[in-house]
Amino acid sequence: MPWKLASLGTLLAATLLAGCSSTSTETAADPVTTTDAGHSRCEAKAAEFTIGKKASPELLEQARARAGAQNARFLMPSDMVTLEYRSDRLNLNTDAGQIVTRVNCG
């Protein structure tokens, strides 16, 4: 008889704990648009219109706004860059003639 009560008690406890667990409705396909700090993430594809254009402050601001980035910068071939990754920063890579060659976030 004590084993039956112990088994029944264990089953009851497991059922109660299973009811307390939560499930996430977020899937991997859901787009994440903000970082942990609440900043919007950069979408590099939205700024690809800059490729082939000459670097200018106006172009940088247009690209930043379209990409939804908090910050944007031009990177020349000779610029030294840190390895920090910032999901809210847009990078416009240029060649020596200041023509945008690549767009990425980070």
From TrEMBL:
This is Peptidase inhibitor I78 family protein. Residues 1-28 form the signal peptide. The keyword Signal applies. Keywords: Signal. It comes from Pseudomonas fluorescens.
